[in-house]
Amino acid sequence: MNDTRNADWFAQKLSDKSIRGIALETSALIRAGALPVGTKLPAIRDLAFALGVSPATISEAWSELRRQKIISGRGRNGTWVSGDRFVAKPERLASSGNYGEGVLDLTAAVPDVRLLPPLTDALAYGASAENLNSYERSRILPELEAAVRRDWPYEPEAFLATNGGYNAVYTLLHALVMPGASVAIENPTAMRLLDILEDLGVRILPVQCDKDGPLPSSLEAAMKYRPVAFLFQPRLHSVTGQSVSKARLEALGNILAGSDTLIIEDDGVADISGSPKHSLGGRYPDRVIHILSYSKTLGPDLRLAVLSSSRAIVEQIQSYRSFSAGWTSRILQAAAAWLQRDPRTEEILARARNIYQQRHDDLTNALRERGVELDDGGGLCAWIPVASEPFAMVTLAARGIAVHPGAKFSILPSNHIRVATGNLSERSSEVADAIALACTTS
């Protein structure tokens, strides 16, 4: 369909001439079917004249609809209605397949539930948490704060409990970053982080990485655009399995000196990593936001992460949270504090850490035996170079194996696949045989 609605038609339909009003009323017309997908919108100057507003007002309203992916196009080719779905969704995460029975699904880099600590005693303790069922919007339970302070990588001014690691990132970005701002992020990175940034409508500046972490030269190039934030994983990378070296962290800190860029450190894999915790918080306590998630170590149904920063930044994030949850369940906070005090928890985590590393190494060593060159790593997945992502995906699918293409984790062109290893307790040789075939198109 290639319908056109002229400026006079819009003038009859739109009553609110503000930027927000034009965007809302236009989206309502699209939702109602009055502006079907494919409809060409009038030129900005024509519509501005018909409505009696400035062209800048129309341009801003259209920009809002572009961010929502409702309209597309600009310039001489005009602007078109391109979508009529108004429910935001994480495009990268939502594009995961439903593979059915008989397929070895190695797409989800998640913990083995058999290796998580039992929660029965912890939750029973949590049911008697301090101030239980109070509507007071407290940032964090004192006993959880005491537990995390023991081995936090620096001494921050304030802590905040959140409903998981991605909830922490989502909340702080919406509280502190405006749509249209620039955000630097390591490339590749977790696809859910890219989903959050894309949904927020920021300009994403990819920072390339090697085995030691984000490349200083790439971060330096990104800093020329004055990003409002730099987001990276300072410990174990959830996609590549690499860890940021101490020397690399110091080099990144040197590049960030003299700027006002927020430094967001996302430790999502946490103590599955055997690497020590470290942070730039000691150098830049006024603008580092350090996040530690407990989903991979204590269990995703604890729905818990803790972030630290300056008191001013934590208050800003907490203020934004007041629009929704307001606080994190005291039952879950107390349960997490109990688990961290229980000496059995460290024994369970140490065992899980060793098993995850063994499963990772079983696959990567088998691949090396088959001529596939890849870096050492760890965690819950392997990042494997391939000649062609589409060829690799089809080759593995034909053998009943599902993995993720590297493009899901990258802004830049990618030639990798990500293979989850956390639950790969057997069949490593079979998987390695298939991947070795998938790695080359010759």
TrEMBL record:
- SMART domains given in the database record: HTH_GNTR
What name appears for this protein in its UniProt entry? Answer: Transcriptional regulator/aminotransferase domain-containing protein
- GO molecular function terms listed in the Swiss-Prot or TrEMBL record: DNA binding; DNA-binding transcription factor activity; pyridoxal phosphate binding; transaminase activity
PANTHER family on file: HTH-TYPE TRANSCRIPTIONAL REGULATORY PROTEIN GABR
Give the species. Answer: Rhizobium gallicum bv. gallicum R602sp
Which InterPro entries does the annotation name? Aminotransferase_I/II_large, HTH_trans_reg/aminotransferase, PyrdxlP-dep_Trfase, PyrdxlP-dep_Trfase_major, Tscrpt_reg_HTH_GntR, WH-like_DNA-bd_sf, WH_DNA-bd_sf
User: A Pfam family matched by this chain, by name?
Assistant: GntR
What is the similarity comment for this entry?
In the C-terminal section; belongs to the class-I pyridoxal-phosphate-dependent aminotransferase family.
Residue intervals of the HTH gntR-type domain: 16-84
The answer on whether this UniProt entry bears the keyword Transferase reads: yes
Keywords per UniProt: Aminotransferase, DNA-binding, Plasmid, Pyridoxal phosphate, Transcription, Transcription regulation, Transferase
CDD domains from the entry?
Answer: AAT_like (cd00609)
